[in-house]
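Work Package 3 (structural annotation) set out to generate three-dimensional models for the target panel prioritized at the project kickoff. During this period the team completed the workflow that converts sequence records into discrete structure tokens, so that structures can be stored uniformly alongside our sequence database. As a representative example, we reproduce one entry of 364 residues exactly as it appears in the project archive.
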Amino acid sequence: MKRLVMCVIGAACVLTVVSSTVLAQIEPLPLWAWARSTPPQPGDKAVPQAPPTRTLRPNEDPKEQTMPRTVPGSSATYSLVDVRDLHNVIDWFSGDHPPMTPIIKNGPAKLGETARGCGSCHLPNGKGRPENAPVADQPVGYFIQQLRDFAAGKRLSSDPRKPNTPTMAMLARAMTEEEMQQAAEYFGAIKWTPWITVVEAEMIPEMHLEDGNMYITHGKEPTEKLAGRIVETPEDAWQANGVRNPRSGWIAYVPVGSVARGKQLVETGEAMVNGGPVRKTTACATCHGADLNGLGDLPAIASRSPSYIMRQLYDFKSGARNGTYAEMMKPVVASLTNDEMRDIVAYLASIKPGATAAQTASVR
């Protein structure tokens, strides 16, 4: 039986149509996937992201903001003002992708200088970061459908505080069909390459949580309990955030044993419950291909950000994410617990790009 409900996710309210069976199984928001320390409260909403600007930040030394910067392996030079100008996307490694078109570099023409270029958040190589989508090497048809879903208000977030979601909706509504096609073809032409190292751990280095964005590592010694989370953090915070080096990779700390448990769920749809296998979902290869790198217009899921994939699975289950492909996923996640979805994304993140699902990347 389906009904219109205000379903409580943690303390957040999401208006959606869900079955009463699925509603009963929704668990509190997995805060780690949204890089949050507290659950949302009734009435919470996203703080609008500021439009692009080249204005100097008053709390920083002007000389530091305007001095030329470089990154290893690149002959390009940019200042922090350049790096932060999201309407004129910088390009440290132009050989890593096709030539940037105006929609990638400058954003929808309709918005003028207030537009964000697609490459500002998703990076010119399409790899994205934990707070947004890894869009490189995705099917053109799938990519365009997601833009249309954003524009139609069908893709929301289970945490209403997440600012990327309304920003994407605004940009998608401003895009022409030609711009959508150009963006889809640009990112679809970029081959996905290794980006994340998965580390199984019980203890991790101290993490500073930038609420709503990401975890930043402080120190090297393991002093903090992972406590059932996945913590995704840049290998080098300055390279990833300060100068937005698109080749600077990421570490995903995952619970001990999660990769093996996730592998079983991904390959067979079964989980061990009370000492025996129980069918919980559909094997992922059924729709996403034997290598999990996409099939037809269905997306690649191997070696992508576990934080991002976890948010999508939870959004499917909560009903926050809707649209053509979402309807296919809702029964797939209906019986999965938060821990089982966490294990799935831990395993997916460990898979080597271009390899079969049985071959995984270095898991320490």
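The longest strand covers residues 214-225.
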